[in-house]
Amino acid sequence: MNSESLQFKNYIESKGLLFTPERQCVAEEVFASHNHMDAEELLKHLKSKGSKASRATVYRTLDLLVESGLVKKIDLGEGRLVYEHTAGHPHHDHLVCLKCGSVQEFEEPLIEQLQEWACEKANFKPTGHSLNIYGYCRGCTTGKR
Amino acid sequence: MNSESLQFKNYIESKGLLFTPERQCVAEEVFASHNHMDAEELLKHLKSKGSKASRATVYRTLDLLVESGLVKKIDLGEGRLVYEHTAGHPHHDHLVCLKCGSVQEFEEPLIEQLQEWACEKANFKPTGHSLNIYGYCRGCTTGKR
DNA sequence: ACTAAGATTGAGATATAATCTCAATGGAGA
DNA sequence: TCTCCATTGAGATTATATCTCAATCTTAGT
Prior knowledge:
Chain A is an alpha+beta fold. Chain A folds into 2 domains: 3-85, Orthogonal Bundle (Arc Repressor Mutant, subunit A), CATH 1.10.10; 93-142, Ferric-uptake regulator, C-terminal dimerisarion domain (Dna Ligase, domain 1), CATH 3.30.1490.190. Chain A is built from 6 helices and 5 strands, in the order ααααββββαβα. In chain A, the strands form 2 sheets. Chain A has a 3-stranded mixed sheet with strand order 4-3-5. In chain A, a hairpin with a 2-residue loop joins strand 1 (71-77) and strand 2 (80-85). The longest helix of chain A has 14 residues, at 55-68. Chain A is globular, with a radius of gyration of 18 Å. The model of chain A has no long low-confidence stretch (mean pLDDT 94). The A-B interface holds A 75, 77-78, 95, 97-98, 104, 106, 108, 110-111, 114-115, 117-119, 121-138, 141 and B 75, 77-78, 95, 97-98, 104, 106, 108, 110-111, 114-115, 117-119, 121-138, 141. The structure holds a DNA duplex (30 and 30 nucleotides).
């Protein structure tokens, strides 16, 4: 079991819940993937690997993973909700290609700072944000893709 | 008929389409509202006012309004898709209250500039973006609401 | 005014994503 | 072992949005 799964196990057990095979299976699949993945895709992967985890369990486990802080739920807009693991990932936002659907990440600490200021000015207490830029990725503009 | 409806009429007719009573009705309802409104809410309003515009027509007309540039479709995340008219509205982003659901607008031109730079660095050709900050509005933090 | 071509409409079917229900299962502690 | 309660899967349900298609309008041409 990898380090992230172990952390998840600890989280689960610290809440007095059970680290079941189904939960482990879902968690490991999430941690193993290095792409943004949506819940239905994840379910399909698991099914094709012979796991019997049901849709309900997949969604429930994803909620637990998000709760634990090990996984982040990202709203890419256009109905795309994906998950990414947080380990070793500093905060970033997303560039979403409207042609090929690919998602790149980018960091811009100053944007975060400006957001803070905007919130102060508006007397708004921020807890999180979502910034997506839509357009065309390199491959889709150079015609090489 | 107000100026925005007139502009919409012009847009519709410039495309060789018909400015039907249904389309007028939907457009005027959108232009009359000063809040962000979602499609189902709009449909309900129209029904309660005796309009017979169907769901299909409401959605279709909203698409036309967005196409025309007079209305913008905003993805507030969490499955909330709302529409706002653009007339006299400079570009802005949104502060979404997680408690009362209210939506405030804010402007921060520098953020836009930084986004441009981030795109350049990534060889990404932006066409639009969506920035929502989630948290608690003034009323919901001071306990006055 | 008549007609043909094509735009528009509403009702309801369909699609999609996610959540909920509930009976059956199974682990943990007394 | 027994009891309690967490967990599960199958399928029902909800919510939102889009699609289908026959009926109805509009308009242009005659």
